[in-house]
Amino acid sequence: MGHDRGAAAERAAAVEDDPIALKLEQLILGAERRYTPFQAARSAGVSMESASRFWRAMGFADIGQAKALTEADVLALRRLSGLVEAGLLSDAMAVQVARSTGQTTARLADWQIDSFLEGLTEPQEPGMTRTEIAYPLVELLLPELEEFIVYVWRRQLAAATGRVVQTQDDAEMVNRRLAVGFADLVGFTRLTRRLEEEELGELVEAFETTAADLVAAHGGRLIKTLGDEVLYAADDAGVAAEIGLRMIETLSHDETMPELRVGLAFGTVTTRMGDVFGTTVNLASRLTSIAPKDTVLVDGALAQELSRTGDAPVSEAETAAAEKEGETVKYRFALQPMWQRPVRGLGVVEPWLLSRRG
Question: What does the alpha-carbon distance between residue 31 and residue 163 come to, in Å, rounded to a whole number?
Answer without folding.
Answer: 38
